[in-house]
Amino acid sequence: MEEESWQQLVKRSLKSPEEIARFFNLDVDQVRKVARHFRVQITPYYASLIREKGDPIYRQIVPDEAELESAGGAEDPLSEDDDSPVPSIIHRYPDRVLFLVSHLCASYCRFCTRKRKVGDPSKIHPRYIEDGLEYIRNHSEVRDVIVSGGDPLMLSDLKLESILKPLREIPHVEILRIGTRMPCTLPQRVTPELVAMLRKYHPLYVNVHFNHPDEITEESTRALSRLADAGIPLGNQTVLLKGVNDDPAVMKRLMQKLLAARVRPYYIYQADYVTGTAHLRTTVEKGIEVMQALRGWTSGMAVPYFVIDAPGGGGKIPIVPNYIQSISDEQVVLRNYAGDLYVYPQVRPKKPARRPRITPCDSIPTHP
User: Fold this and answer.
1) Which of 193, 198, 186, 185 has its CA nearest to residue 228?
2) Which residues are catalytic, by number?
């Protein structure tokens, strides 16, 4: 039997409230209520990773009536729209931009920071792509472009290349990055043909998105290997989620499995303050606890940054456990990963040598 293409797998996704309710034995009216506010879709592959109702994969992707509860949050918590000079560009940092090229995702995450846009072609539309390219051409300070969406890999190889090629031709653009969740939710998308096209546009980086060790499967590892074999550096961005990966042991295993799959853990995000996600957000203290269980307890390469993408558009702010116990001119007292204290002596600046003082009478020669 001929293997299904990734496009065929997308077509077979659970897309309607009725399909999702039937598949997971849910109240269809409740699913419809959620779907009226937020897009729903689950690929057959990602649905197959769910072992039981409420497990870590289920919580990420299956619509939940808790999304409709009013418990704080904002539609645009990072104020992306305020930093959007043209509809397809978010320009927050001095030398890099986010370029939104696709409104579609293979599966729609329930914690998505861009819920207000994904799945809506009126907000992320192909007609805005040329405007984005022109903006980047006209802003010579932009040296790094992150191609995002939605998911850029929902575009055909031909369409994606029609974006990457003109970006690579802009002299001041040094680095291209693609942000995608497809290696996790639909790894069949990473075909030899896609990889052959991507490798033409180095230096090109791909940031993937895995949140739980069970997402690192034989299929996803094969997709990641294809990208890595093409010389594409891979980084992972994880969102800290309640009931998914807020267990330090689970997060450590995820980071170890990523590294074994040749993916460098890049960020753990404190979940954004998005409307309808209160049931998935943890405390910041939980994130610090997770970081303390990583630093020193596993390979340094497996330890990402823990960041809060500041509400209001302040950008990513790193949050670290307090390893400095005290600091003075003489010494720094440090706590290591195991809780032991160590003293590091400070450098003492040398005092300048005193010059002999010359008095007026010393400087004036005397004669007999």
Assistant:
1) 198
2) 92-93, 96, 105, 109, 112, 114, 272, 309, 316
